[in-house]
Structures are given as structure tokens and as C-alpha cells.
């Protein structure tokens, strides 16, 4: 990727309108968001000029200013079935385009995403199982400057456990990508790592 010393500062007009409904053990909400961004610092493909240079291939993507509209709707809900046991859900639809009407570069497009999380917590124990759901990116501008399908959708599961040893010390254990799902991070176009095990100690002093 090639930098650009001539970038202008981003300016944005953002609107968020939403409604929430809450009871003692239930939550539901919906939000509409619209971001009109001028001089959005995004990416564009280009053809390098000049004679070939020995070594790795020259960059074919550079940072560039664009005028962009990003808008969407987010739904969320949570319900506590039993004391400490909660099921949460989040679903976000996003549509983003340049003011020319062209789709954005693959590195700029956020697909439809959803999160479903089951959490249990008491005085000492915390358990969390969640699924991260990514939709297809749809048509985007690819590295060859052609419009085509972006990254494919995927469903990824994570597990996290925590135990409060003392009021100031907690042990944690997390498994990211529990079932080793093969997928691509939508906005970086890199394959995600496989299953990861994380151990931690949180201490308050």
C-alpha cells in the first residue's frame, strides 16, 4: 500500500436516531445511522508508473480522499432468563457507497454482521459463548480495479471463562474461533487466524 502526502482532513455530518425499550430483564433497541463524509480517507487502486524496480511488486493500492455515504440500521436485544444468565443479540445492516454511486474498495466495505452471545455471571464465575456472523461483502472494487464479489460470509464461535480468585484477582481463559472456521477479515482481506487460546490474570492494585 502506498501513502499519500496530499490527503485532506475528513469532514462528516452524522445522524443517529434510535428507540430503546427496557424492562427489569429485557432490552430491545433500534438505531438508524447516516454518515455523510467528505474527504473520507479510503483506498483506491492505481497502476504504478515508471520502469520496473527489482524486488517485490510495487504497491497497487494507495490512500485517497473520497466523498462517501455510510448508512445502516442496527437492532439489539437482551433477555435475562435467570439471575445471571443472559442472551444478547445484535444485528447491523450497513450500506456504503461513493457519491458517484460506485461501490467502495474491498478494504472499506463492512458487511452485514450479527452477534449472538450467551453469558452467565455470578459472584465468582463468568462464562460467555458467542457467535460472530459475517455476511457476504457483495460487489466491491477489487485489487485489479474491477467490480466483483468481496469476501464470503462466515460464522465464528468464541468461548470465554473467568474465575474471581479474590476480590482483586481474576483468572481468564478464552478460545477464539472455537471450531477453527476459515474466513477472511472483510476490511483487510487477510485470512483470519485459526483457533487461538488466551490465558490471562486480571489484577487490581
Give an account of the 3D structure.
This protein has a nine-stranded antiparallel beta sheet, with no helix packed on it. The chain has a two-stranded antiparallel ribbon with strand order 7-8. The protein is globular, with a radius of gyration of 21 Å. The chain contains no helices and 13 strands. The mean pLDDT is 85. With 205 residues, the protein is an all-beta fold. The chain has one domain: Beta Barrel (Maltoporin, Chain A). Helices cover 0% and strands 61% of the residues.
H/I helix tally: 0
Q: What is the percent of helical residues? A: under 10%
Radius of gyration: 21 Å
What's the number of domains?
A: 1
Low-confidence stretches: none
**Rough outline:** globular
Look at the structure and give the mean pLDDT.
Answer: 85
By DSSP, the count of extended strands is 13
CATH topology: Maltoporin, Chain A
**Mind summarizing the main beta sheet?**
9 strands, antiparallel
Amino- and carboxy-terminal Cα gap? 43 Å
| Second-tier CATH architecture | Beta Barrel
CATH class: Mainly Beta
Query: Hey, roughly how much beta strand do the residues contain?
Result: over 45%
Write out the CATH superfamily name.
Answer: TonB-dependent receptor, beta-barrel domain
Structural class: mainly beta
Q: What order do the helices and strands follow?
A: EEEEEEEEEEEEE
Spatial strand arrangement across the major sheet = 1-2-3-4-5-6-9-10-13
What labels describe this entry?
Maltoporin, Chain A; nine-stranded antiparallel beta sheet; two-stranded antiparallel sheet
